[in-house]
Every structure is written in C-alpha cells, then in structure tokens.
Write a structure and sequence with these properties.
The complex is a heterodimer. Chain A is of the alpha/beta class. Helices cover about 25% and strands about 20% of the residues of chain A. Chain A folds into two domains: about 210 residues, Rossmann fold (3-Layer(aba) Sandwich), CATH 3.40.50; about 45 residues, no CATH class. Chain A has six helices and twelve strands. In chain A, strand 6 and strand 7 form a beta hairpin. Chain A is globular and about 60 Å long. Chain A starts with 15 loop residues before the first helix and ends with a helix. Chain B has a single domain, classed as Rossmann fold (3-Layer(aba) Sandwich). In chain B, helix 7 links the parallel strand 8 and strand 9. The longest helix of chain B has 18 residues. Classes of the chains: A alpha/beta, B alpha/beta. Chains A and B meet through helix 5 of A and helix 2, helix 4 and helix 5 of B. The complex binds adenosine-5'-triphosphate, magnesium ion and zinc ion. Adenosine-5'-triphosphate binds next to strand 4 and helix 1 of chain B.
Chain lengths: ~280, ~280
C-alpha cells in the first residue's frame, strides 16, 4: 500500500478534542473491566455499523510509531479491512502490516488472532451490539440497573432454556462472559472458540460500538469466564478430525468451504496470516 | 395454626394512596375516594398478621384493596406508609419496605412466593415450564442445571403437570395449568409464605376445584403459611383458617373463618355471608 499521509486532514482524522474524549472514556473502561462506558461517537466518512466504534478507538490511540493490522473475520484481505487500513493510513501516514507479530494495534471484526498477543499489543474489536443483556431485556434503562445490581438471572435463564430445549447451550458467537466476577460482557461477535483467549491475556482488549456509542475493555491479566453451569461446562467449537487444507493446522478456527462443482467440503484457517506463517515455516 | 408463635408476616398500618390527600380526607371519603380532593385511598391503615402454617383469607368486593395489599407485599406497588415484617428478613426487626433493591429481590425469591390472578404477570409465557421454575433457583445463586431440572420435575409432579411437558412453554397450556405452573414456580425455593391473589378467578368450576384441592394439599404437605385473597367467600370458606374482610381499603372485620360465617358482625359481612347461603 503506497499511501502518503494527506496533510489536509487532522492527524487521525478526528479533532484533538474528540480524540481526548475517546481516550478518557477508554481509560475509564480500562479502570472498570467489562463495564460499558458511554462516549460521544463521532461521524466518520464510513457508515455506522461498518466498524466505526473500532475505528474511533484506533484513531484516538494511534501514533507515528504504531504499526496497524486490520482483519475482518480473520482475513487481512477483505474489502472492509483493506479500506479501513487505507483510511487510517491516509490520515496518519503510519505503517500497516498483515503480520500479527509486528502489529502494535490490531483492529478486528469477528475474530481474535490465533497467535497469543503480547503485552505491547492492543486488540481493538468492532462491536455491533455491546449489551450482553439485550437478548433478554430490550430497555437500556433496565439493563443498566441489572448491571448495577448484578442481577444476571435472566441471562443465565436463557442458557438454561437452551439446555432444556436442545440439551446444550446453542450460542455460537457473542457468547457472554463474566469479567473479574463482576460485569457480564458481550465479547463481540467472535466465535466462542476465541472466548478463552480473553482470559488472563497479556494484551489489552478494547471494544468499540460506534452506533451504540459504547466503549469497554479487558485489561491485561483479567479473569474472563464464559458463562457455564457447574454440570454443563463451556465448550468451544469442535473441529475434531478436520484440518486446514492449506497449512494442515488442526487447532485453529476453521472456515468451511464448499465446492459446489465437486460437492467437496474442505476447511481452511480463518486467520489467513497465521495460515501463511505456518506454511512458510 | 399457632397464634402464640411469632407471626411469619406482620403488616402494620399499610396505606396506599393515589393522590396527595387533604385535611378533610378522613371525613370526606366516598367509598375509598375523597370527595374534596379526589385522592383514592386504595389501602387505608391495614394491619394483618399471618401465623406459621395458617391460611389467612382476605375477602372483599372488587376495589376493596386486596390486590393492593398483595402487590405492596411483593414490591409491585410502593406503599405510601406502613411497615411489613417477615420472620425471614432480619428476624422480623426491620420493615421489608425499607430493604435495598437486592434484598427485595432476595425476599421475593426466597421468602415469598407469589401467584398472580393473571398468569401473564407471574410467568414467562415463552420460556419452558422448567425454566420458569429454574428462574427462581438461578436467582438464589445456584449454577447446577441438573439440580434445577430435577427440582422442576419434582414441583411439576406435585402440581400434577406431566413432566413430559416441562420443556413446553406455558402459553400453550390451559388456564388451570398455567395457575399450577405459577404455584410450582412460587414454591421453588421453599418460601415461608405463599401469596395467592384470586388464583381460581376466571377458571371453570371443575378446574377451580382442582386448584383449590392443590392448595389444600400444599398446605398440609409443606406446612407453609398462605395469604389467600378472593372476592369469593366460598373459596375462603374452603381454605382459610382465619379471615379478614375488607371494604373500601379498610379492614372491617376479622376472626376465625367459622366464627365469621356463623356470626358476622358488620352489615357488609352479613350480606356476604347470606348471599352464600
Ligand atoms: N394507579 C391507580 N390510580 C388510582 N387508583 C387506583 C390505582 N390502582 C388502583 N387503584 C384503586 O385502588 C383500589 C383498590 O384496588 P385493588 O386492585 O387493590 O382492588 P381489589 O380488591 O384487588 O379488587 P378486585 O377484586 O377487582 O381485584 C380501587 O378502587 C382501584 O380503582
Ligand atoms: Mg384484585
Ligand atoms: Zn382529601
């Protein structure tokens, strides 16, 4: 990508006041892990619902020495990821990468990279619906109270209902988790395969919801537990007997690919840069 | 029943008022409404005691303030003044109406069980019958799904609902079944008192009889105290050890049910009793 910084834009597109406000909200989010901090979501030259929460976090944090990686469902090459990268580069001039090791800030939609992230890395996740209790309670006023009073019975009931009806918990993405025994949090639409990566992680996780105007965070070394009953443990997706047709990995999150001509089904790492790295070893 | 013991529940001077009231309210009431200022005194200085193992009946015409009492107890209505003491909450030393939101939730889940006249208020109609019971158990902090399921089975059996239907939603059940699910839900955490607000109103006579039988069974089986509200003296006669008669937000008469039936004192009670004969 050969894009030069366009000097006519403010560094990081947003005005300094806005960036400051977002950074303050981010600090508050870090101080209260799992708590949704409201912020004044700004307009961007991108439609809300296309990652504007994540982009605002990225733009407010990024500095000249940062290296940015953007992925969409694990892929560096998706149109959305490429466009976000271009946009940030245009208004900051920073370096971008597809290499997870080299990135200082990774913005992602729907995935956490396979490689464990380090203490000097930040993962920014784009969030459509930050409120984990929304599925059981439509009113914001009520969910706020529920969080304040730690009244989480309704969401546990949702899990129980699923066990009664289907014999197991059927949620596959946005699987709710408890942060430091306090707030229940929506980990964004990552597959539940990625949930364990949130627990006691070295890196800082930031979550940004542009449309819903919320920021929340999981600081390094925070306990994050996926909701589960004592006798029905949390289980992530099981890819037993399947492996990536490109790199052979059998411990990664796999996308199923269906060849309609041959009728064949095969699997491929959803994290494309990880897949490439394994192949080049 | 044993009135020499401490009451399980004691309500002192419950007043629920809609409107600000005026200096002439006490002398200007027409039924429960002040002619001068229009304030409605839905509950006017009501005091009751419920003793261990007894069924206390509350009877009165429509609008007399029966549901107001029940819903105040279950925190659905905020009383204007008064206190209520539960044996199970701070040894009956502090009024439950001063409890924190979390304590109130705890009281509703562990100490009291409520059955509403309208099952829509007491049940999650779209969740399974089992989940309706589990909801109560989850609220106590339990996180064992298997235990919840066996408790749900046990309770549904007790109210004679086939356990094969426990994964079905109550919206598909008949009115009588819905009331029975409500009762089993109310019993989930072995509460010390059950609040039953017109549980049989609107049910067919034969279904009504079944629900009344069930309540009698529960009383003997669990030895639980029951506050039973009905506008139907026939229902009260069948179940209540003692009875309180309400009119226009006030208690006008109370005593042993047999005594009230045999020798009603207040003119209104006399009317009620004679209409039963
Ligand atoms: N929000 C309100 N504003 C004004 N008056 C009210 C309100 N809610 C209830 N009331 C009045 O309070 C009085 C007591 O009502 P309550 O529901 O307790 O009666 P009830 O004895 O349960 O009657 P029913 O047998 O019909 O169920 C009634 O006169 C009612 O109109
Ligand atoms: Mg009523
Ligand atoms: Zn008045």
């Amino acid at each position: 990508m050969k894009i030069k910084r366009n000097e006519e834009y403010n560094y990081g597109f947003l005005d300094e006041g806005s960036k400051k406000e977002i950074r303050r909200s981010t600090l508050k989010a870090v101080a209260i892990p799992g708590y949704q901090v409201p912020f004044g979501s700004r307009e961007l030259p991108i439609g809300r619902g296309w990652g504007t929460g994540g982009i605002q976090l990225t733009l407010s944090l990024i500095g000249p020495s940062d290296v940015l990686k953007v992925i969409d469902q694990g892929s560096d090459e998706s149109v959305n990821a490429v466009n976000i990268k271009k946009f940030v580069k245009l208004c900051t001039g920073i370096k971008t990468t597809t290499d997870t090791h080299k990135a200082t800030i990774i913005q992602s939609r729907h995935r956490i990279p396979e490689i464990p992230l380090k203490n000097d890395q930040i993962l920014v996740l784009q969030v459509p619906i930050p409120e984990p209790l929304r599925i059981v309670e439509p009113k914001e006023e009520v969910t706020k109270k529920m969080h304040a009073e730690k009244d989480y019975a309704p969401i546990w009931l949702q899990l129980y209902e699923s066990i009664i009806k289907y014999g197991k918990v059927t949620i596959s993405t946005e699987y709710p988790c408890t942060v430091e025994d306090r707030y229940i949090m929506n980990p964004s639409p990552i597959p539940k395969f990625d949930n364990p990566k949130l627990n006691m992680s070295e890196c800082l996780y930031l979550f940004g919801a542009g449309r819903e105007k919320k920021i929340y965070a999981i600081p390094p070394y925070t306990r994050v537990e996926s909701l589960a009953f004592d006798d029905v443990p949390f289980e992530k997706e099981n890819f037993k007997g399947k492996k990536c047709c490109l790199c052979g990995s059998c411990d990664t999150y796999l996308d199923e690919i269906f060849n309609s001509e041959t009728g064949e089904r095969y699997y491929q790492c959803s994290d494309t840069s990880y897949c490439r790295e394994v192949r080049s070893r | 029943m044993n009135t020499s013991e401490n009451p399980v529940l004691s309500v002192k001077n419950l007043t629920v008022r809609y409107g600000d009231g005026c200096s002439e309210c006490s002398t200007s009431l027409e039924k429960n409404r002040c002619r001068k200022c229009g304030t409605v005194w839905a509950s006017n200085d009501v005091s009751i005691d419920v003793y261990p193992g007894e069924v206390l009946g509350i009877v009165g015409e429509s609008g007399s303030g029966k549901s107001t009492l029940m819903q105040s107890l279950y925190f659905d209505i905020e009383p204007t003044s008064g206190n209520a003491y539960l044996n199970g909450y701070k040894n009956g030393c502090e009024s439950i109406w001063n409890a924190s939101p979390a304590e109130k939730r705890d009281i509703k889940n562990k100490i009291m069980g409520m059955v509403y006249q309208n099952p829509v208020r007491g049940l999650r109609m779209d969740y399974s019958a089992a989940s309706n019971i589990a909801e109560k158990i989850i609220a106590t902090g339990s996180r064992n799904a298997g235990e919840m399921t066996s408790r749900a089975k046990e309770l549904l059996e007790a109210v004679e609902i086939l356990t094969s239907r426990m994964s079905e939603a109550p919206k598909n059940f008949s009115g009588g079944m819905q009331q029975r699910v409500q009762i089993s839900k109310a019993l989930a955490n072995n509460p010390s008192i059950l609040l039953l607000d017109e549980v049989t109103t609107g049910l067919d006579l034969s279904v009504q009889a079944k629900v009344l039988d069930l309540i009698r069974k529960i009383k003997t089986l669990y030895g639980i105290s029951i506050l039973l509200v009905s506008h139907d003296l026939a229902v009260i006669r069948m179940l209540a050890d003692r009875t309180v008669v309400m009119l226009d937000g006030k208690i006008i008469e109370s005593g042993l049910t047999d005594q009230i039936l045999e020798d009603p004192q207040h003119e209104y009670t006399q009317q009620l009793v004679y209409s039963l004969l």
